[in-house]
Amino acid sequence: MGGKVVFKAYDPDQLTFLPYKLEELVPAGHPVRIVKQVVDAVDVKPLNRKYQGGGASSFHPRLMLKLLVYGYLTNTYSSRKLEDQAAQNVHFMWLLGMKKPDHNTINRFRSEKLSGVLKQIFSQIVLLLQQEGIVSLKEAVFTDGTKIESVANKYTFVWGKSIKNSKEKMKAQLDELWGYAQSIAAEELKDTAPLEYSEINPEKVKETISKINAALEDKEDVAGKVKQKLNYAKKHWPENLARYDEQEKLLAGRNSMSKTDPDATFMRMKEDHMLNGQLKPAYNLQISTQEQFILNYTLHQASTDYQTLPSHIEQYEALYKELPKAIVADAGYGSDENYGVLQQKGIEAYIKYNTFDKEQKEGIKAFSNDSLHYNEADNYLTCPMGQRMHHVGDGQRITSSGFVQLISRYQAQNCEGCPMRGVCHQNPGNRIVEINHSLRKHKQAAKERLNTEQGIKYRKRRPADVEPVFAQLKHNHGFRRFLLKGMSKTEVEIGLLSIAHNLRKWKA
């Protein structure tokens, strides 16, 4: 038989001679101490300027910043949960000196006070990392993007093309009504011109409907369907057009937006394990990393990565007054505009173009435009059979970002009877090709850089530097969807997330 079972003494109501000091309950080296140390070291004057004098006293912005940063570091994103932690969690209580902001105060600080100034706080923390020799702002950075879902419901979409189609349909119906009115009341409408498409606005449509109604008022043989349509048009069309105009202003050239979060654009998300794309309102997050620390973050409404790089680089320069010596990115960023921007700024572009990987395995595809030899001195191409393709004109192509590409056209002299005709091109007549010489040069330079010893090292390092950061944020720390609406507020969330990530990794 075993000995007598003995339990440790347990009395939750037992009083201690002296109360516990919270300081004793926070271990040395605990992440909460790192948050306190770093936030105490940054300049919060930009935050102080957000406060107006008078009225009741406010919680100190440094205290509120500590609360939010440590909250995001511990995966506590909700303002109500942060309120609970401030009242219950020993680490939060120590960090805040037993102060207990409520959820409304927390949310107002995050939404209003941090908006527009958090990037200055973030950059100060990155500079502290640089001072400790952990990162270098002058060395190469690794850039990539991911899409994060908006808090808006996925069924709240507004499509730019749908608005255009509705306005065109309205114009067609108005033309039909105008034609009908002229057929039975030509005299009344003889001094009035029909509407142009550019005039489809609430005032003009209302005025035109009134004129049609006035012209048909005394006519007894007006069809009932026409009267019905005119009544409907008078009641609904001006109001609908006003709504379309407002939505087009909010779209600002985008293809889509959410009704409940107009800053969010519908983007294809790859969230399930099968990577099946779903269209959801989202923002495109871009980050540049080094040693898996986030050095720069920007949020975008454009779903394609190549459109985001110029403004991403501009912000890096604005934050640190210097630029990295190189940017390493995947083929999603390999555009004529991006190569040109980086060249102009003196940044080495270790950026793939869309066919780079395929070319590495299979070489340049025979008979493609890239396979044709170009004689720059005399400005002609040589076809696969050795025939000159003469320059026959130039043109322009405007990308979705508004960048103007210069395109040169070249035409073969005689494709008739050529033994390669079937595989070279299928169109009737002599082959014509369009060449973007700027992009062609950039691609050649990028290919040479990427295949240097340094380029190969960067290519191997890129997926191990920037991509794990997204895995940390989205999968390990569960941030897959924003809590707030609007670009300025979602930027604050990403800023807090980036600061928390850097602090978590700094002292890990």
Automatic annotation (TrEMBL):
- Pfam families in the record, alphabetically? DDE_Tnp_1_6, DUF772
Top-level taxon of origin: Bacteria
State the signal peptide span. Answer: none
Start and end residues of each Transposase InsH N-terminal domain: 21-111
Q: Which residues form the Transposase DDE domain?
A: 382-505
Q: Which NCBIfam families match?
A: transpos_IS1182 (NF033551)
Q: What is the name of the protein in this document?
A: IS1182 family transposase
Which source organism does the UniProt entry give?
Answer: Mucilaginibacter sabulilitoris
Task: Tell me the lineage of the source organism.
Answer: Bacteria, Pseudomonadati, Bacteroidota, Sphingobacteriia, Sphingobacteriales
